[in-house]
Design brief:
Layout: H1 2-12, H2 15-38, H3 75-79, H4 85-90, H5 96-112, H6 115-121, E1 123-127, E2 164-169, E3 178-190, H7 204-209, H8 221-224, H9 228-247, H10 258-265, E4 280-297, H11 307-316, E5 322-325, E6 331-334, H12 337-340
């Protein structure tokens, strides 16, 4: 254990990571200061033990002139989202000051990230079964484009302009229901959720604004860096564990400094050293991407789920490799012919979705 902790501390003091963190903290503080001018960041609607809502908490109030012009075109939809930085980001309704700060974070990542590692050593895959927290509104004054998951089947050989959220894996394992294996340029990567934009809620005016470059996705500074409260808790926990070691007659584990606690909790992945033993990168933002393969969870019986998607893939004749993924994330290449070929369809008892 002592050797492991010593190695861990050496990692925290790598020059590149220390410089990255020092520069990132300045941007993070700038973001926090801006949010403070908008008001308190609320934690959502709270309820009493009987299930009755407490009064809606204090929340941010953004001057209308600081918001994108299209926000006032649909106040009912945006009214539910403009009082929190996370929902503003998700719905493309951030202020220009917020956008500018988050672009600084992306530029800093590009300066320090090992792109050869992301390109050659990380499997990047987009889970089409994932459901984002923010959904396209049922009723809106805006026009939203319809993009079905099956549309991706026709994108083999093309380059996607909209930045895509992916999971990353250095172990070769894949998790999730079904989706696409991608290659492209890594815009940002983290061991945690980035709280990035939700592409499906981009209405026509948003898409027109980003027509040249494609829809963006940016990381939330708040998601990738610990708060003062969480840093304090980490230091207190380290002290408790050191005291317990002494009580049990063991050599106490190393005392961590405040800077070390911050470095450990910052979830940015710049290179292989930032990936934990699981080999998983929770969210990776990929630009200028291409489809390199497809995957689905191995069915217990019957056809791969969802049947309609994979039947259409077979009928269209997709050419990229298709992988069946077991419960542990291991994958093996398969042929859709085995599932949907004329001599194979009678083998399956269950043809339902």
């Amino acid at each position: 254990m002592k050797l492991i902790m010593e190695n861990w501390r050496r990692f925290l003091h790598e020059t590149s990571n220390r410089e990255f963190l020092e520069r990132f903290v300045k941007i993070y503080n700038e973001w926090q200061d801006l949010q403070a001018t908008y008001g308190p960041i609320h934690q959502g609607q709270q309820y009493d033990p009987d299930g009755e809502p407490y009064p809606y908490p204090e929340h941010q109030s953004i001057p209308i002139e600081a918001q994108p012009a299209y926000v006032k075109d649909d106040p009912k939809y945006y009214g539910a989202h403009v009082d929190h930085p996370a929902t503003r980001r998700a719905t493309f309704s951030q202020t220009q000051q917020e956008v500018d700060i988050e672009k600084e974070v992306l530029r800093l990542f590009q300066e320090f990230a090992d792109q050869s590692f992301f390109r050659n050593d990380v499997i990047k895959y987009h889970d089409l079964a994932y459901r984002a927290a923010i959904q396209k509104p049922w009723v809106s004054n805006m026009t939203f484009s319809e993009f079905a998951r099956e549309n991706y089947l026709g994108m083999e050989g093309q380059r996607g302009k909209d930045v895509m959220s992916c999971h990353g894996s250095t172990s070769g394992n894949i998790r999730g229901g079904f989706g696409m294996i991608l290659q492209g340029h890594t815009v940002f990567a983290s061991r945690g959720d980035l709280g990035s934009q939700t592409l499906r809620v981009a209405h026509q005016k948003v898409r027109e604004k980003h027509a040249g470059s494609g829809l963006p996705k940016r990381a939330s500074p708040h998601k990738i860096h610990p708060t003062e409260k969480s840093t304090t808790r980490a230091l207190e926990r380290n002290k408790r564990l050191r005291d317990r070691d002494v009580r049990m007659g063991r050599d106490p584990r190393p005392e961590i400094t405040r800077d070390e606690a911050i470095a450990d909790a910052n979830t940015v992945v710049l290179n292989a050293a930032d990936v934990t033993s699981s080999g998983m990168i929770e969210e990776l933002l990929l630009d200028n991407w291409t489809i390199e393969g497809w995957y689905f969870r191995a069915p217990f019986s019957g056809l791969p789920h969802p049947e309609g998607f994979w039947r259409k893939a077979y009928e269209m004749g997709i050419t990229k490799p298709v992988y069946e993924v077991d419960i542990h994330g291991g994958k093996r290449e398969v042929s859709l012919e085995d599932y949907f070929g004329s001599e194979s369809t009678t083998r399956w008892d269950d043809h339902s979705e």
